[in-house]
């Protein structure tokens, strides 16, 4: 999908003919009682746009209702005050040769590279029980494939294919830094739980045009799902120490750090506290980088209200830094 | 232990010779630098008392430090302002023929009778999956024995041997009432989860002189332990529907109703909400009945601060009711 | 209003001629500066629908502004993405022979039957003071009529004519179950306060097309109104014990269980705690049954966000149970 | 009790012979099993001190247990690290000619003067309904006497005889200032509710050696008690407007400003908001003045933790101000 | 701008030709792909209205995009259900002779008069350090001019030019009342900090058509800005006592009273507590007076939800008071 | 003080003659009215112990009251249940040759080494404004000496001389790791604010036997003190960009991340969020390492309640890890 015109790049009056995923569709009878118009939300892997299909014939209506992926020809006809665009559809037909998965954003990082880094971390673990547990997951091809495709979240951070792997290695790297600063923290344990902390997410999300929660994800959640997955593997290992199993499961269960974020226990051992911080740090910083990315072409200094921070974010900080470097240089040149 | 003089019945100046469990012991050198006194906390299954052992010889000191169960001869020598007593120890020797378990309070109810009621509830379940799941637990003799001995809590409610069984049937009975009032609630499901909701407690507590948390109890908690136990049984059953398994586990996980009480998910199906209410209702009302029991011989109208309610409780309400009945009768007789 | 076509049953393109209550009306001049269109919200006792009246003449406009109940002829012309419908009005004229009350939903239960059950409860009270107090209310015909018509809430639970009586007997029945499980709870007192706990609601709501709060309801609230009503009756009774009066009023004042729900005191006697649980249990379970009812014809597994639970609800649980029964049967038949 | 030596003025080694109120008494048998010592808490209207009565004879013991007011001869024998003193009792005998009331602190203000100011405020009210309501209370001699004796709180502010009257006029005066700044606030209404806002306190406290809550105070609370008192008077007045009655009761019910402080409704009319601020301002500032008073002879810059502010208070601010004035003067003189 | 027709006074069908400030503008291509319509939000100093400019030519479009102040001719064409109006624009041209400032509301009070009162307060301060500090601000003409123009808030209270001065003298007057009631409060200190407490607001807001936050206001806030301003002046004064400087800065830093309102320290000296109450009292009462003012022409008894009180407000209280006075008079006349 | 016997190493019955700092002293007259005993709290840089000085003569008493540092000869005479010891003092005389500072614990790290690392970080900054600002602090010898001696906290983390420097470089190193993982974060800015974030602490604490808050620390706090310090330096620098100054101050002000922890603003730029996480991570992990250190000689698996985490901590995790390594080795050897 390389040379495609992407939703994120559209401008008022642009004409476009591309394949899109139809996320929502609503049809309305005009007040004359005869003509039906369609109001759609269509997405590609860069974003979402409203699109209106005026005056749909009865036959076309039946056809459209079943289509998920469509080749759409249209023009951007409205720019709202907040920058949102609206498109008018000229023609629309099924595009069955595409897969829904192609319409979900993917990690910008090379997934092979990320997985290789994870494998290196596993190789560096000395404790055989922990190493065996990690190997039992990451050498299991079914698990590995699911893990590689899973997102790290629905919206907040690394919300794209490969996001889980990317977030996992980031968390492990922050843990590595903590271990260097504080050698009293048990590295084998902390790196191991860092690699395992979010594995339950492979069953928490499903890719359905966009990233969605599964019912299991909503009713059980990745924290308990992941704990169950670990429990199952441990049961199949001979002589895995009970105490160690309890500590691993405790660390997974408590890694959200607060009850109201779905942890049934609070981090009560040193590495569990460290994991909580490493996880939260990467999630929030990645979230902010995404936010700045989404705003990079918009001319304003403050973002909209960010629900997961409960505040808006000041976006000008990189410009101010660059400006001040420039000033410095100018001073030097004088 | 029938004719024993119990701690709860002691009065100032009473002399006593009984077996006690030594919960704590502290030894102090007097300022003359020669004499050592021992300050103990001793318990029977009725309560706890401070006991002082004056002037312990060096040999006796070594002996005492290892004793858990002791035949103690002593006299009550102090009554503090708050009603607490203090005992002076005359002699103390090991009482190895007793078991620590004898010093933990038991349910006043007949445990066989309670288990029979639970079995009847199981028999009344029509859904075969749920019935099989229940039978797999309650017909497993190892589980059944542990279940019969387990307490329902450390302090708040039914904190005695047999307490878990007693609380379980109470919760099931409140659920039964809810189903009668609101026939829209699925009885098979609600009664089944009522019987299973606290089974994780058989691994959350240990009996060690008093009821104590296990490390697993503190680090994992009965909610996730119980969910794991159910998951294991379900895995061994053929064709147990996935959706049903998720709903059962969700209901166990969410039955504390709030994140801050250790539920990683909030009750999100009707029977989960009903179970939360039934559980909380029985726990709190049992807790209050215990509180009133503990205060029945104390002459005051308000209890001390009750931490789990964050308020003191007015204790005179039964007296006021009885008084008002008497008045009525007197009016009638006149 | 039996054979009426109800709002809840309407489909796209349906034509209808029925009497509706006009809840809101807005009129707009088209940009040509001449034609005025009307945008109405109309209700029957099953629900609400948007209705547009195109091109209203000046005379008609004046007429419509005063109409509350109207015979409306129209057609459903739009189905929005969320399932909401929009109607186009062809004609509209006053329907003065109807009463607003007819447009408020009523309890599905037989009100006579519910009142008979309440009377039986009153007869079962042994304490003469409590019985007299109850009789002074429920044998007072003015009170009894208001009580029979009152709703139990504005939206959450039993929000219909007769709802208060229905909720009251449900709460009393849950209390009955608690008394059976825990005979230490004083039944006379608990059943009496269960019957009285919400009587203040007869002055908290008014029926004005829909159920609305009175100013008194908003400024004083049913908790204090009910307490005042009881205080007035007690003052007229000879020798009603002071202590008993205080306990009754305390129980009414505290029955919402938390300060933030408008209770100026927290439940501080055992039966007050029991009443709080019984009340909350019935309210929330009834609320959930309504919610499931409203969603029964909608094809989705999760409800919208439920404000009084602060979460969405999973709606598929009854289907899953039925499905699993079917499977069992099929297994047996094989 | 003018020339009395007061507890607040005692120093280590002081000898004293005065009448005290015995608040608590605890008796202990020494370890020899023969001698009994008594540990008492005794109060005068300035404060409280621990007093030990060594070696009490059996006859004396019986006598002491019944004594509430006693002429005690003793010496101060210990000064603890925190400044607290301990007294040794040499002799103790009943002092029946005193009343318990004499041992409760009184307002430093002239109560007649305070009541006169209240009467002047009442006279300045133009609205006849409000004036009549106020007169019905303050010209009722039974109410007036109770009101004059009542404290404003148990501990926090104006916790002395006459404190309610003093707090009431202060609140009315702050309201007066608000009305001058914001003439849009209805003065008649605001001054009236200021005078009535805490009248329920005459039944919330009882004087029993110290200021204590009544059961009614704990179970119903002065907010609802006061509302009931107003309701009763209003019912006896002819034609008192319903709306006005609801507003007055709403203002009393809401004057604590937050649910968690026992208000079942939040201030929802302008004068109710104003009353809440005036009440809170006077209570907290009076509380801080008391705190500074209690610390005035203690050489430290920070108070202990103040529970009702959830922080300690810096006490040096008056000294710093005086110091800076002195510096100024010195500068001027140079 | 005296005889202008103001937005707040417009009615459906009104024609108007006035200068407005264009706050927002959005342009839409009609579905025919040729005609562009403009949707504007325009304000004067009385309020805001939606205005639609149908069929804008390409040249006009370029012109409009740059205009901030415009002479607009139009007609009110829609009245929504909630009372909001919509205008149709007939012509629009730049009105460069106006200043944006003219479109921001001003205090109803005479600013000279308010400043004179502030100067009198300063003259009444005896402590020379405090007086000098105050004079260093209020006799500095640059500060004085900014202070006179600054609003006290963006929305809640005194949100108009001159609002800061008006709020400042009100707070000082409430403090004056507190000092009269409680002479133990140091008047010199309290009045001084009252006058200085919000001076940071001169850099927190900017006037840009409406009152807006500056970036500095959002990132630093008036509390710390004000503290910095005071610190700078104090550094330039000889021998200003350190302790006094700390107390002043502490009082400014803590005057919002709660961490969540942006105070990094809680009020920990008596005058800081007093200032917090005086500030909050004036802000909230002024806010409510504004609210009532905005609703004075709307026929309803309850305001919309007030976000800064988290409740709606009952608006009928003045009417009820006036009604009850009338009744009284009628009674007297009879 | 190398070969000293330290408080942390004392055992019951140990005799000791060392110099200690007297933190608290209380003197009591025995009940015979003649003999005075002294109850002291004495500290060295390892910990604190209670010490009793029996029967002090009048002359000695006067002498002791002035002594802060004393050569004490004594014996450990009591071991309490919780492990706390009590000492009996045989002799006590002033030890004027010691400095109080010697009795405060110091960082285990080489302070020169830590400062060198900080200097290297400063050298690595490219932005000249930031570098100059850093140099203006760390090349100012008065600042540098204070910074080297300052603790990072009173109790929680790095509460020793040199603790501030140690914590500062740790935070900078975590920030370094974040910049490596997320190159979008501006390294120059983040490292600079990491080095400056806690400089206000040099005026927040004073060393007075133990680490204590200054009044300025309690009333203003290191967050605002640090911001003021930066503001002063920036004012002396030519052309320091305003925007950059605001961003630095914002980041210092917001680095506690939550209002209730004393930040008057929430982190609203990406590097401010990163700094908050890095700071909190190091503080909490250091705090936990201290906690484990304090418990290393105590035989228990759970710590006491940790107030800054609101939970107890499981201490056995390192043992369990080591145990599991041993098991692995044994398995391999078999």
Question: Which features does this protein show?
Answer:
homohexamer, 334 residues, alpha+beta, five-stranded mixed barrel, two-stranded antiparallel ribbon, 7 strands, 44% helix, 19% strand
**Count of DSSP E strands of chain A?**
7
Q: Multimeric state of these chains?
A: homohexamer
- Rounded mean pLDDT of chain A is 88
Helical segment count of chain A:
11
Largest sheet of chain A: 5 strands, mixed, barrel
Strand order in the sheet with the most strands of chain A: 1-2-3-5-4
Helix content of chain A: 40-55%
The structure class of chain A reads alpha+beta
State the shape of chain A: globular
Order of helices and strands of chain A: EEEHEEHHHHHEEHHHHH
Strand content of chain A: 15-25%
| pLDDT < 50 stretches of chain A | none
Gyration radius of chain A (Cα, Å) is 24 Å
Care to describe what's here?
The structure is a homohexamer of 334-residue chains. Chain A has helices spanning 58-66, 111-123, 128-138, 141-149, 163-181, 187-196, 215-219, 222-236, 242-254, 270-294, 317-333, and strands at residues 15-29, 36-44, 47-56, 69-79, 85-94, 205-208, 210-213. With 334 residues, chain A is an alpha+beta fold. In chain A, strands 1-2-3-5-4 form a 5-stranded mixed barrel. In chain A, a hairpin with a 2-residue loop joins strand 2 (36-44) and strand 3 (47-56). In chain A, helix 2 packs parallel to helix 5. The longest helix of chain A is centred in the last third of the chain and has 25 residues, at 270-294. Chain A is globular, with a radius of gyration of 24 Å. At the A-E interface, strand 4 of A face strand 1 and helix 7 of E. Strand 1 of chain C pairs antiparallel with strand 4 of chain E.
